[in-house]
Amino acid sequence: MRTVLRRPDFRLLFGGLVASMTAESILLLALAVWVKELTGSSGLAGATIFAIIAPMTLAPLVGWIVDRYPRRPLFVAANLVTAALLTPLFAVEDRADLWLIYLVAVFYGLSYITLNAGLSGLLRHLVPAELLADANGVLQTVRQGLRLIGPLAGAALYTAVGGGLLAGVAIVGFVAAAVLVGLLRVTEPPRSRPGRCCRCRPGRTPPSSRARQPRCTSRWATELGAGLRYLADEPALRRALLGYGLSSLVMGFSESLIFAYVDHGLRRDAAFVGVLVAVQGVGGLAGGLVSSGVIRRVGEVGALAVGVALFGSAGLTLAYPNLWLGCAALLLAGVSLPLTMVSLHTLIQRRTPAPLIGRVAAGADAVVSGPRAASIGGGALLVGSFDYRLLFVLVGLVTLLASSYLWSGRRLSPPAQPAPVGPVPVRRRSPTGAP
After folding, report:
1. Cβ distance 260 to 102 under 8 Å?
2. Pick from 335, 311, 321: which is nearest to 272 by CA?
3. Which of 144, 151, 166, 298 is 20 to 30 A from 408, comparing alpha carbons?
4. According to the 3-state scheme, what is the secondary structure of 218-286?
5. How far is CA 333 from CA 141, 306, 362, in A?
6. Which residue has the higher pLDDT, 291 or 44?
7. Are 394 and 236 in contact (CB under 8 A)?
């Protein structure tokens, strides 16, 4: 990781991302706490998280838009627009203004998809292929650290200063990210835009709108679905998404099962879940630090298999209620999350052509997040009808099966050559963006 951090361009991007990720982490829980305080309803507070997740259904459209514009200006603009979209929060005073929080949550979810898709393309252009795993590992380490302290800090900040000032702090974070990334000097190759169909070109007699519409609509639909088609056609990406998607069908169960584990297994209050979440956060920090090394040894698909296997082992361990075993299991689960994320993002960045990377990254987010969101809801229903220990065994067996499927395809993404160690050479770019 030190090699990638020695690059001045990456350090500048890293500073901007730390600012934006800090703003994201303090907002996530604080918006739900704000709704809870205004309404007294846990259901309405939970709906705030759903409002953030719901725009994931528009991921192919967002990815298509991202692919049509240069990465750096788009990333800067997305941060500035996100900052502007938070300003309605200053007008929230009572329950009658609840719709403003939900509106901001929806747009915030859209900006999250846009920033993630734009970041994949920007990293691909800024960092050599052999350093992508290190770059993603550094960013995931910071994300896991902020995930550990950010939501609690955001909730505490809301309690101390109120929602308006909290929104102001988040706005400063997104504006700072835009400024820092705007300082990058990156020359990108010209981006080709999809042309109009032959019937719509100037110089030809335009047919009736009814005759022209099907062909234009077909071209638009083809462009929109190009990312999902590429995910289905590229062998390593297809294997990764099928295996990780299978594990995601049950991994979300743990969000509900952990409460039953603490209550019925450890015989402790629900607040003790916070202690276990902190233990998992420590594992997340470790996972971010070791992920690039694992990828260098077994490749992206192999590292994804290792991450899923760690989660499966944690699930089987949690089937037996014991505090020390539970802490060990949560550490494994914490290591699993950044390892799987770094592996998947690096695989996408290395295997996807630059003109498609926004749509592929956004499509992969949708493919993974959909089953996981469904499994969170399924776990909440199943934990009321079945013994939590049986459900943890189910989680462990399914994820280990998915890990075996991924491991058998590890040769689809062999380990990359190690990055050279030493001073970073200054590269001059031609006007076309070529090295």
Report:
1. no
2. 321
3. 144
4. HHHHHHHCHHHHHHHHCHHHHHHHHHHHHHHHHHCCHHHHHHHHHHHHCCCCHHHHHHHHHHHHHHHHH
5. 15, 11, 25
6. 291
7. no
Task: Pinpoint the alpha helices (H) of 272-431.
Answer: 273-318, 323-351, 357-382, 388-408
> CA separation (Å) from 366 to 4, 32, 229?
29, 23, 14
Q: Is the dihedral of CA 310, 313, 318, 324 positive or negative?
A: negative
Rounded distance between C-alpha atoms, residue 341 and residue 332, angstroms: 15
> 10 with 127: CB under 8 angstroms?
yes
Q: What is the pLDDT of residues 278-294, one digit of tens each?
A: 788 888 888 888 998 99
- How far apart CA 109 and CA 434 sit, in angstroms, is 34
Max CA separation in the chain (angstroms): 78
Distance CA 332, CA 306 (A): 11
Residue type at 215 in one-letter notation: R
Task: State the pLDDT confidence band at 340, using cuts at 50, 70 and 90.
Answer: very high
Q: Are 67 and 356 in contact (CB under 8 A)?
A: yes
Please state the rounded mean pLDDT for residues 200-215.
Answer: 46
Asked if pLDDT for residue 295 goes beyond 70, the answer is: yes
| Closest CA relative to residue 139, chosen from 107, 177, 171 | 177
Concatenating the DSSP letter of every residue in 97-120 gives GHHHHHHHHHHHHHHHHHHHHHHH
The DSSP secondary-structure symbol of 430 reads -
pLDDT, residue 9, reads 84
